[in-house]
Amino acid sequence: MKDFNHKHLIGIKDLSAEDINLVFETADNFKEVINRPIKKVPTLRDTTIANIFFENSTRTRVSFELAEKRLSADVVNFSSSSSSVSKGETLIDTVKNILSMKVDMVVMRHPSPGACVFLSKHIDANIINAGDGTHEHPTQALLDAFSIREKLGDVKGKKIAIVGDITHSRVAISNIYCLKKLGAKVKLCGPPTLIPKHIESLGVEVDYNLDNVVKWADVVNMLRIQMERQDIAYFPSLREYSMQYGLTQERVERSGKELIIMHPGPINRGVEITSEVADSKNAIILNQVENGVAIRMAVLYLLAGDK
Amino acid sequence: MSKATLLQGLIVTNSKSNIDNEKVDILISGTEAKIVKHNSQKGDFEKINFSGCFLTPAFTDLSFSLPDPGFEYRENFESAEKLALTSGFHRLCCLPNTEPVIDGKSEVNYYIKNSRQSKIEFLPLGAVSKELKGEEMSEMYDMHLSGVKAFSNADKAVKQAGLLKRALQYVQSFNGLIVSFPFDETVSVGGIMHEGEVSVSLGLKGQPELSEYLMVKRDLEILRYTGGRIHFSGISCAESVAIIKEAKKEGLKVTCDVRALNLLFTDESLKGFDSSYKVLPPLRTEKHRKALIAGLKDGTVDAISSGHRPLDTEVKDVEFIYAKYGASTLQSVWPMLIKELENKLSISQIASFLSYGPETVLGINPSQFEYGYIDNFVITNPKSDWMLDKKSNMSLSENSPFMNINHNFRVIAIFSKNKLTFNK
Questions:
Q1: CB spacing of B195 vs A198 below 8 angstroms
Q2: At B403, which CATH number?
Q3: Do B184 and B250 sit in the same domain of this protein?
Q4: Cβ-proximal residues to A293 (8 Å cutoff; 6+ apart), any chain
Q5: Cβ A118–B201 below 8 Å, yes or no?
Q6: Are B34 and B65 within one domain?
Q7: Can you give the pLDDT at residue B374?
């Protein structure tokens, strides 16, 4: 078997295309496992994993916990509201607690970009980044690309559009790294105030017109508007945002093609995407959720094997 | 009476001196020192051989944070004195953002009193506005009478154009200098590093060059209207250099300095989310670093400042976005600049940007370097072997990006306020 020579999964930036494909191949196996009548395997028995969430999360936390439990790991959950970590002391204290608990792996979500890098300098356990501020969300990108691969057979050469608030999106950054490494063409679309200058340096194109982008794309990944991360108003109103960047059935039909529609969740129905589109046959939003468990099992398995 | 001391074999390293590069001796009798020709003195002296060591003026820092009162555990007068002597500085211009703010005579006098008792000079920068709130002008005349030479808003721009206009006008009756930190925060809301490819790759919001040169332009327009003098502290981008170059050509009374860190590092240093490099102005790209060096060479940039900002671990060794801006730098400024810039600037030029440059900005008579006279100096051994670590660090704070870097150049003695101090 090929090696996954990483101690942590902090960002897709650190992975090679081979690494990503190895995660996919491993996830293929786990996807088969989780569709069996008995979904549990003993792979991570005697491994203790701490899920530490300093930001609210339902989907990602549950997905990780399910993945860990299906691998028979011992799981401890720790969550704290972001307000109590605003000065940063809690992370240091948490680090010390983790060291005392002798956990083997840490899954962490934190509002500060680079928080997992910070953690990796202080503790010895394997670290999986479950989202660090506006930096990266690697498992989301892996499950997104895995879902595209599942639907279209391959990611290479496919045209993927990422639409919405790019500036405040860790999903966008990780997706860009992942898709580019796998050979996809990536176009970003959103209000110019929410697309970082210099983003083209990551090898992507930018188009501010959603209709153009929808016509171009094979897959459209609609990002959630991150109102909680916006320190000032980047657009006048949600209404106006929807008018320009909301994905409606009419827009999809105007493209005249079988568009695949993705969303990392949770959805602001009626803002970035209408219910009609989100629940349509073209949407693979729930496949993404299911694949999330398989991808996270694969990542946990591969990192545990590093020991 | 004790014997006179003869320091022998020093090489003059001062591009502003007529005897640059000459080998000289220094004769110290009591509190007086003078440069004499090498091996010209006969008599009964205590002789010390400094053959091969560099003789430079003692340095002046235009931007030093001495958070006393308020945060004395980060740096205080005692630690700052030791730090300065070890680093070759005999004069520190201290920012007014203490608690309470240096915005009146009594706070200034606290500095002046401490300065009198010290082996070095602490020169407080007065706050432009009361409590640095950016609303009303502080009593700048009274502070001037107490010894303040320049007025600053610390590491923040004077937001209100009208306030800057009035301040530039007001200080002209006593030839005061206004120091501006050009940084428009509204242009880079949420930004915590230079806006560019690195910030994009880290998912961090950026501080574009625009946030700086927009303020440089604004301030120069105001200066053009008011007259008077302005000094830009810590410019960091190529555009600012170009704009200031033009303004100088036009004859406006403008000077500027660049922080040592901006000459030594780029935004690439931030790739690992290392908060030691989280500073203001931000570390920008190689293009900007080169433009700053070119600005020094062509006379646009007048001085190099340390930008010394001592901070405790509790506010610095935390997640990147929560870490405060600033680095403890003073002790490594001189050896690091020599190490990194030697191919671009001569050692004499670097010494001059740390002495003659800041003195000229402040309107202080530059150190005289001629036979028969010398009022302050630093002796640097170029063949030393040391590094900044917990033991050798003289600052009370450890937030230095220069930790564990090896150096050959080391300040071994300094003559300040008529006293010779040797570094152990």
A1: yes
A2: 2.30.40.10
A3: yes
A4: A30, A34, A63, A66, A67, A70
A5: no
A6: no
A7: 94
- Domains of chain A in sequence order: 12-137+289-304 (3.40.50.1370), 138-288 (3.40.50.1370)
Indicate which CATH number applies to the domain containing B159.
Answer: 3.20.20.140
pLDDT tens string A44-84 = 999 999 999 988 888 999 999 999 999 999 999 988 765 45
- B346 and B406 in a single domain? The answer is no
B230 and B277 within one domain: yes
Q: B276 and B139, same structural domain?
A: yes
Instruction: Please name the residue of chain B whose CA is at the shortest distance from the CA of residue A231.
Output: B190
pLDDT per residue over B214-244, tens digit each?
A: 999 999 999 999 999 999 999 999 999 999 9
Chain B neighbors of A228, CB-CB under 8 A: none
Residue of B nearest to A170 (CA): B203
The catalytic residue among A59, A69, A180, A257 is A59
* Distance separating alpha carbons of residues A9 and A130, to the nearest angstrom: 9
Looking at residue B171, the DSSP 8-state letter turns out to be G
- Would residue A61 show up in a list of annotated catalytic residues for this protein? no
**Could you tell me what percent of chain A has a pLDDT over 70?**
94
Give the per-residue pLDDT at A231.
67
* 3-state percent helix, strand, coil for chain A, nearest multiple of 5: 45, 15, 40
User: In this structure, are residues A221 and A262 in contact, taking their beta carbons and an 8 Å threshold?
Assistant: yes
Of the residues A137, A181, A224, A251, only one is catalytic, namely A137
pLDDT band at residue B60 using 50, 70 and 90 as cut-offs: very high
Give pTM, 2 decimals.
Answer: 0.93
Rounded to 5 degrees, what are φ and ψ at B344?
Answer: -105, -35
Query: Which range of residues forms the domain containing residue B42?
Result: 5-55+370-422
The rounded distance, in Å, linking the Cα atoms of B67 and A279 is 59
Among B200, B206, B320, select the one facing A112 at the smallest CB separation: B320
Residue ending a domain, choose from B350, B366, B382: B366
Side chain identity at A270, as an amino acid letter?
Answer: G
Partner residue opposite A118 with nearest CB, options B190, B201, B319: B319
Question: What are B238-274's pLDDT values in tens digits?
Answer: 999 999 999 999 999 999 999 999 999 999 999 999 9
Which residue on chain A is closest to B324 by alpha carbon?
A87
Asked whether residue B19 falls in the same domain as residue B107, the answer is: no
CB contact under 8 A, B206 and A136: no
The ipTM (two decimal places) reads 0.90
pLDDT range class, residue A1, cuts 50, 70, 90: low
d(CA B196, CA B74): 32
Length of chain B: 424
CB pairs under 8 A between A and B: 75
Q: Same domain, yes or no, for B62 and B135?
A: yes
B411 or A101, which is more confident: B411
State the Cα–Cα distance between residues A194 and A174, nearest whole angstrom: 17
Q: What is the C-alpha separation between A290 and B354, in angstroms, rounded?
A: 63
Number of domains chain B contains = 2
pLDDT of residue B360: 97
